[in-house]
Amino acid sequence: MKDNNQLYAAIDLGSNSFHMLVVQNVAGKPRTVAKVKRKVRLASGLDSNNKLELAAMQRGWQCLSLFAERIEHIPKENIKVVSTATLRLATNASEFCATANHILGIDIDIISGEKEAALIYHGMAVTSDSADKRLIIDIGGASTELILGQASTPLVLNSLHMGCVTWRDRYFSDGLLNSHNFEQAINAAAEVFKETQGDYLAHQWQLSLGASGSVQAVQEVLIAQRLNEEITLEKLRLIQQQTMACVSQDKLDVDGLIDDRKPVFASGLAILIMLFEQLNIDVMMASGGALREGLIDQLLKTPLVTDIRQDCCLHLQQRFDVDLKQADQVTEVALALFNQLESQHGFSAQDKEMLRYAAQLHEIGCSIEYLQANKHGAYLLSHIAMAGFSKQQQKIISALVGNYKNEINDDRLRQQAWCSVEGALLLMSCLRLAVIICGRYQADRLAALNIKLSYQASTLIITHQTQQPLFVAELALETQLNNMLSIG
């Protein structure tokens, strides 16, 4: 039975959806135990005088009744409830909150746009790995937050009065997905952004992240269409063309777009296109956290971690009792092999990092069973929460771990979109060879075996100077399993 004193909840009454995140404090880290999301579309209930219609308030109260049941045993001091743009605008917000406070037993905090932006940045900072200067964009239902910051410190905060629900109601109300509606929506968003644009163009940043459902929806479409997870203006325009080809909202059918995201997809896409154009954004990735994660972190008061991915890796090693000595030695050898191939194939520093984390976690499945440890490890790393890692980074690590021994599963390598299949096979080969070379605590064999790798015509050629019978036998078996590998 869970200790209720170690349970924490963050509730976000957004303009499009209401969200609830419940976590358990496990050794100072939040472990998600429940996530609930309901499409309330509160912003759609604002009339021309910014008064919330009764029907919209009733949708909100009904949703909060569900949330109240889930949090009734959590200490009140462990719960935070905030509301954002719509209740900031609503002239009768107090009427909604009076009933909502009674339902939840907790007072709702209607936070300012600046505080919302700061919480979004904090939630991103504790879940996304980077010390670089970062631009964060969160397209909500009735507002869009833009935050420029470095490490854990936000530098520029703005909350703009435009969102995917309000822009849908203004510029796509006829249900048509045509160039006229898109152009109107993009131009109107640019007009709203005009006053604050200079705040951002005065800076340079190294990383752009999106913390909203609109960005996540675009990323899901890209991954489904095997365009990798990096969002660019060219890809956004491609998705816009696919969207307009559907002609109308009721016929919207873009590969990778789930039904839940369809109602506000076009409007969110228009705002995102405008921001890419006005800020000259080259590439954007989806962030792992946002407002709710920021609230949870404030509740837990966890110390700031400077290297989130490494911290995540260490946590998984401890949780699944990974042999750290073996992990370190396999990592050392795998990276030494990688270094021989790096210039020949044109790998990036990030590719090397993915190999390093795969080597560190390759035996994670041994905690379940040894013979099929690679399969167990791949499953765990496909489904477990990995703070600081993007979806495609998680997929490539899972694919490599799933192939560190036994027969090679090409499907895992083809299903990831982090790198080419050829590149994934080379990374996999470095890991598999490292495992063979190390045996158990024998990393020093690499120098003794005098192994050299070269890559020619889609073949990885390995040469060595040894007659050690076990190694020679294992290498011969590896060439039978790995069609890419040849003994020179």
Structural features, described:
- With 488 residues, the chain is of the alpha/beta class.
- It has three domains: 4-111, 2-Layer Sandwich (Nucleotidyltransferase, domain 5), CATH 3.30.420; 114-292, Exopolyphosphatase. Domain 2 (Nucleotidyltransferase, domain 5), CATH 3.30.420; 308-440, Hypothetical protein af1432, CATH 1.10.3210.10.
- It is 49% helix and 16% strand.
- It is built from 19 helices and 13 strands.
- Helix 12 (324-345) packs antiparallel against helix 13 (349-361).
- The longest helix has 23 residues, at 179-201.
- The radius of gyration is 25 Å and the shape is globular.
- The protein starts with 6 loop residues before the first strand and ends with a strand.
Question: Which descriptors apply to this entry?
Answer:
488 residues, alpha/beta, Nucleotidyltransferase, domain 5, Hypothetical protein af1432, 3 domains, 5-stranded mixed sheet, 19 helices, 13 strands, 16% strand, globular
Number of helices: 19
Strand content: 15-25%
Rounded mean pLDDT is 90
Query: What profile does the largest beta sheet have?
Result: 5 strands, mixed
- Number-wise, the strands total 13
N→C terminal distance: 59 Å
CATH homologous superfamily classification of the largest domain: Exopolyphosphatase. Domain 2
Count of domain modules: 3
Which CATH architecture of the largest domain?
2-Layer Sandwich
Helix and strand composition category:
alpha/beta
Q: Which residue ranges are poorly predicted, with pLDDT under 50 across at least 5 consecutive positions?
A: none
Shape: globular
Please give the order of strands in the largest beta sheet.
3-2-1-4-5
At the first level of CATH, the class of the largest domain is Alpha Beta
